[in-house]
């Protein structure tokens, strides 16, 4: 779960292949563009996670893909935008990260969803 500081949020549902570090999953969330009506998005992505081998940060990773984004009122419809996420976490999958949807980028806290 990526929780944006002062803006958007994103939940990743991903699987990690332990033997090669490949990540596959889906993302959904909101983009806060400074209006009353946040846009929502959902999409699929892929990437890679690496073990660091030292310190508190034991894993770093990144993934990217395409997301369908709902248009804000008064517009109607959806559009496709690239999304990406990167993170640095400990063994409990708690840490920091960044995610982007289209031209909106958010620093975030990362936590494992229970």
User: Radius of gyration, rounded?
Assistant: 14 Å
Biggest β-sheet, characterized? 8 strands, antiparallel, barrel
Strand content: over 45%
Enumerate how many helices there are, as a single number. 0
Question: What kind of assembly state do the chains in view correspond to?
Answer: single chain
Low-pLDDT parts are 1-5
Helical residue percent band: under 10%
Largest sheet strand order: 1-2-3-4-5-6-7-8
Number of strands: 8
Mean pLDDT: 85
Distance between the termini: 10 Å
Based on CA inertia axes, which overall geometry fits?
elongated
List SSEs in N-to-C order.
Answer: EEEEEEEE
- Judged by helices, strands and strand pairing, the structural class is mainly beta
């Amino acid at each position: 779960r990526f929780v944006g500081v002062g803006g958007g949020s994103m939940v990743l549902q991903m699987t990690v292949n332990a033997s090669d570090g490949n990540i596959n999953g889906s993302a959904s969330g909101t983009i806060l563009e400074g209006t009353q009506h946040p846009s929502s998005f959902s999409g699929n992505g892929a990437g890679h996670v690496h073990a660091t081998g030292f310190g508190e940060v034991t894993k770093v990773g990144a993934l990217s893909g395409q997301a369908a984004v709902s248009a804000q009122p008064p517009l109607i419809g959806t559009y496709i935008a690239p999304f990406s996420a990167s993170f640095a976490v400990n063994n409990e999958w708690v840490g920091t990260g960044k995610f982007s949807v289209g031209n909106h980028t958010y620093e975030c806290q990362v936590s494992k969803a229970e």
